[in-house]
């Protein structure tokens, strides 16, 4: 950690970051038998903190603690009390927002102003929204065609949930999993990414402070191949709730198939962001740049594939470049930063390998493409104009500040091209013609379509992908449903 970084930290952030952390089990942090992992500040490449690689035996203790809480206090708590506790949890996240925001800014390199204005409110909203549910989870009476019989259903929790989160939205993703899982009555073992563990550990402390019984929320830190694998293959885990890459999602899908666990997968995206010539071009271009470069493009629903009607291509490109030029690249804790670094050295190298595929394809790098600072994993906001639909920069998720821009000439040509990718997470449409907006939106193979806006998100609105972007929606009633099972009871009245 540098002296400048240290001076920007709150005293409580500094204290928590400087402490040695283990896994959080049964209401307290506990030493694990495994090795340790250094977490780096991606803006300085310096070590911020050291987390535990939780070993198999300690993962087992975490799952046993969650199983005990499920069979005990949390499993039998009255619904109204569950609601109160989830609201109290939300209160504590709000009260500790400044501190929590600093962990994600430090470890993830995100501008602190973005974490405070986007991640924190979204995390609180998840708890507030799902806190309203426990007293409303209902079964039904079933009109079976059998005489003298009464049939009803009960909606019941699944048991222990293994919640696996990615590094790009640590706090938010933890909340998106914890809030509905707990509202449904499950207990949780959370495994955050090894790059960004601190906010999840701190959340577990707040769960206890809120009054949730010990064992209801546990956190095991460590790598995917070690700690994560031990968690998802544990026989007492009933459900895997995963957000991350397509490759890991496929692996966990196979794992769930082998052990017959419930699973939901929120995976990557390469999202067509479509601008028609009749749109409000200034507004569309501002959104195009913002959603492409927000958090350096390390966002699953980044508007990373901009498809522009040919007549306005030059106008859109120059407006996007103007917005990109205005971005201030800097440290996550620096309030003047509007764009941070990439998450790691290996990730930046991966993004650069994509840029190297452009030469000789007929496409051009319109701006950006270079490293910008001596230290930190920074990369300039970049645009590639004119790649073919099958080029890797269009077909694959780059997950960096790289916007690909493609012209189109008609709706008939546009729609199959926009749907040609392997993913189906989100899409955007900009037009002043309502009929065109509806016609295109309903034909796009994307779990969410935004019209004349982009990246709106709310705990009440289902979010999740089609095709290789996964299955099982976050948010809304569907987000709760995936943490519940149905029991049918037949009673003879004869
Ligand atoms: P990743 O798949 O590398 O890792 C995600 C998590 O899985 C990490 O905690 C990792 O340690 C863990 N993991 C890896 N192997 C595992 C295993 N064998 N068993 C158990 N756990 C394992 O993904 P990432 O690089 O952290 O995140 C970026 C990806 O996440 C991108 O593809 C992005 O689009 C996606 N994402 C999707 C959404 C969404 O809502 N659809 C949201 C955020 C991020």
TrEMBL record:
Q: Does the keyword Membrane apply?
A: no
Keywords of the record, alphabetical order, are: Oxidoreductase
For molecular function, the Gene Ontology terms on record are: oxidoreductase activity, acting on the aldehyde or oxo group of donors, NAD or NADP as acceptor
* Domain (Aldehyde dehydrogenase): residue spans on this chain: 35-489
Active site annotated at which positions?
A: 266
* Signal peptide region: none
The record's section on Pfam families has: Aldedh (PF00171)
Task: Provide the family line.
Answer: Belongs to the aldehyde dehydrogenase family.
State the name under which the record lists this protein: Aldehyde dehydrogenase family protein
